[in-house]
């Protein structure tokens, strides 16, 4: 996984819960394409048709609050979101994202939808145009899990060593 992620910003506000990231009616499948097709449907029904691989969600406070559904970060990952940047995350969403290999960073970033955003996970920074925002640096052991593609792949890699 790249430690620097560049993409177009998609702006969402505070308290984006897992029910709007992937509505409950889609949870009975294991088909990742279904999750991708309906990502963010509760807020923007056309999001999955507009987002491009590597794009970055920029949220407010408490992004990913609500239920502990692992399908929420899976939906974002499989629709092609390269990273989620938010002022704060629901703690279970944060760890589920790491576990499934979806990069994220806590940072208070100001930008407009469509702005080019560059996230440096190793440094804990987010760049928008000529502004650099310092975020919460992710510990090395979590970066390693992200680099390996998630917790399951990380454990497989450890067992092979």
Automatic annotation (TrEMBL):
Catalyses which reaction(s): (2R)-homocitrate = (2R,3S)-homoisocitrate
One Pfam assignment: Aconitase_C
SUPFAM superfamilies: LeuD/IlvD-like (SSF52016)
Motif range (YLRT): 26-29
Gene Ontology biological process terms in this record: coenzyme B biosynthetic process
Gene (UniProt): hacB
Organism in which the protein naturally occurs: Methanohalophilus halophilus
EC numbers on record: 4.2.1.114
Keywords assigned: Lyase
Lineage: superkingdom: Archaea
PANTHER family reported for this sequence: 3-ISOPROPYLMALATE DEHYDRATASE SMALL SUBUNIT 1, 3-ISOPROPYLMALATE DEHYDRATASE SMALL SUBUNIT 2-RELATED-RELATED
Coiled-coil stretches noted in the UniProt entry, renumbered to this chain: none
Swiss-Prot/TrEMBL site (Critical for substrate specificity) positions: 28
Entry protein name: Methanogen homoaconitase small subunit
GO MF terms held by the record: homoaconitate hydratase activity
All residue ranges annotated as the Aconitase A/isopropylmalate dehydratase small subunit swivel domain in the record: 43-102
Subunit structure: Heterotetramer of 2 HacA and 2 HacB proteins.
Pathway: Organic acid metabolism; 2-oxosuberate biosynthesis
Purpose of the protein: Hydro-lyase with broad substrate specificity for cis-unsaturated tricarboxylic acids. Catalyzes both the reversible dehydration of (R)-homocitrate ((R)-2-hydroxybutane-1,2,4-tricarboxylate) to produce cis-homoaconitate ((Z)-but-1-ene-1,2,4-tricarboxylate), and its hydration to homoisocitrate ((1R,2S)-1-hydroxybutane-1,2,4-tricarboxylate). Is also able to hydrate the analogous longer chain substrates cis-homo(2)-aconitate, cis-homo(3)-aconitate. All these reactions are part of the biosynthesis pathway of coenzyme B.
Protein family according to the UniProt entry: Belongs to the LeuD family. LeuD type 2 subfamily.
Family annotation (CDD domains): IPMI_Swivel (cd01577)
